[in-house]
Design goal:
With 389 residues, the protein is of the alpha/beta class. 41% of the residues lie in helices and 14% in strands. It folds into two domains: 135 residues, Aspartate Aminotransferase, domain 1 (Alpha-Beta Complex); 239 residues, Aspartate Aminotransferase, domain 2, CATH 3.40.640. It binds pyridoxal-5'-phosphate.
Length: 389
């Protein structure tokens, strides 16, 4: 068997290794407190399940769907964007259904990146941006995100020679893994930057519905003229606790959305129609369930931040996402602290270095577990003298 050279370049997906490690511990009887993968532990709201049962009974969902999505789904996405962000989208040309946003993000470079082209990728970041650029034959140019810059990329540090070869510029606010948020002034700067450098702005908005303390995240598409240069990725995964349903959307510039749809029409045949019809219900019905979810995560965030700060950390509360980005104690690397937590306390976190070189010195906690388990984790750390010094 002769595998591609491409395969040698890519590491195993971050969470595959972490899940393997967890399985091994559970097998050995360890009660693992899992702050690992960001997969909501809360149930998909009942009215969404109910709709799924209805459409399964009534609709002819069994045939191939349209690869860019059923019109009713695309229209619901367009209405939701109008209601939520006051952004107008043409359901016919500016919306494409995805099998979750990971699928769309991973296919996008195939439509834009030729051998040697560059993607500008802030890091630490969701690994898919970098790996899909590499799979398409492109080169990632990593822009460090630092605490002293509020985890925003410094655009004026990118060399002209890099900019000349660059085609895509990724942003993700609210941000995974740092929990950072960006204001409209930053989004305006990004749009201007992409216009002057002929770049496609790739905005990943997976966490827009997880804002706390009254903070309501924006879409970059709210910037006037942003649609000239922007494609935005979103999904129902985190908003409605629907990670396993695999339904998302790419929206924005018609040419960019169309280019992605062309790739997709050749590699997948669209999302199961029953899931698209159910997603219409999720997007169009009352969004009270989303608010309730946020309240739960807000409380958990408070418990974790309070607990870690009682152990010596000086963390600020993230305004959005269900991630808490935690510096490692003195003398510990991301990997050594992850291992120490796991071995001494059974607490599973993700090493920040897995999200890029600037993630070194951090670990990520996903608060996708009940408040009581978070309290127990803090107790376990206290008992084992794990403090921030
Ligand atoms: C930043 C970011 N973007 C995209 C995704 C993909 O989500 P999905 O494919 O479930 O829409 C994730 C999942 O964790 C994420 O963290």
């Amino acid at each position: 068997m002769r595998k591609s050279k491409r395969l040698d370049k890519i590491p195993p997906y971050l969470f595959v290794k972490i899940e393997e490690k967890k399985a091994e511990l559970v097998k050995n009887g360890v009660d693992v407190i899992d702050f690992g993968i960001g997969d909501p532990d809360l149930a998909t709201p009942r009215h969404i399940f109910k709709k799924m049962h209805e459409v399964l009974d009534q609709d002819k969902s069994a045939n191939y769907p349209s690869s860019k999505g059923e019109l009713s789904f695309r229209a619901a996405v367009s209405d939701w964007y109008k209601k939520r962000f006051n952004v107008e989208l043409d359901p016919n040309s500016e919306v494409c259904a995805l099998l979750g946003s990971k699928e769309g993000l991973s296919h996008l470079p195939l439509a834009f990146i030729d051998n040697g082209d560059i993607s500008l990728i802030p890091e630490p970041s969701y690994p898919v941006y970098k790996i899909s650029t590499m799979l398409a034959g492109g080169e990632p140019y990593l822009i460090p995100l630092k605490a002293e810059n509020k985890f925003l990329p410094q655009l004026d540090t990118i060399p002209q020679a890099v900019l000349k070869k660059a085609k895509l510029f990724y942003i993700n606010y609210p941000n995974n893994p740092t929990g950072a948020v960006a204001g409209m002034d930053f989004f305006e700067k990004c749009v201007k930057f992409c216009k002057s450098n002929d770049l496609l702005l790739v905005s990943d908005l997976a966490y827009s519905e997880m804002g706390y303390d009254g903070y309501v995240p924006h879409s970059v598409l709210e910037v006037p003229g942003a649609k000239d240069v922007t494609i935005e990725f979103h999904s129902l995964s985190k908003t409605f606790n629907m990670t396993g349903w695999r339904i998302g959307m790419a929206v924005g510039n018609a040419e960019a959305v169309g280019a992605l749809a062309t790739i997709k029409s050749n590699v997948d045949s669209g999302a199961f129609k029953a899931i698209q019809f159910t997603a219409v219900e999720a997007l169009s019905a009352s969004q009270k369930c989303v608010e309730e979810n946020s309240k739960i995560f807000e409380k958990r965030r408070n418990v974790l931040i309070h607990g870690l700060n009682s152990l010596g950390w000086k963390l600020e509360k993230p305004k959005a996402t269900f991630y808490v980005w935690v510096p490692t104690p003195k003398g510990e690397t991301s990997a050594s602290f992850t291992e120490k937590l796991l071995e001494e306390t059974g607490i599973l976190v993700v090493p920040g270095s897995g999200y890029g070189p600037s993630g070194e010195g951090y670990v990520r906690f996903a608060i996708t577990l009940p408040k009581e388990r978070i309290e127990e984790a803090i107790e376990r750390m206290k008992k084992k003298n794990i403090f921030f010094i």
